[in-house]
Design a protein that fits this description.
97 residues; 4 strands; 44% helix; 4 helices
Length: 97
Amino acid sequence: MNRTIPLIVVASLSSSFADEVAARLRREGNVVYVTHSAKGCLRVATSVMPDVVLIDQGLPPRLERLLREHPSSAAARIMPLTKDSVPHITASVLHAA
């Protein structure tokens, strides 16, 4: 994607964790969508054509494959979302977009 502002999907089973990550990314000026299920992640990611999808490792492993197979999300950078990765997410996401 050639956007000036990255579009990011945050998918986590924990709403408080997803909201924390989304708030951090929004403060950096990113556009962020939050979902709390694999089905929700697929629905959002395939409709908004994100630059980056952050996936909680509690979600099914096949989610990444399904995102890769869909033309609207195939080009997105897909990254694991863990509590340990949060401090590094902002810099990684900005470089990915």
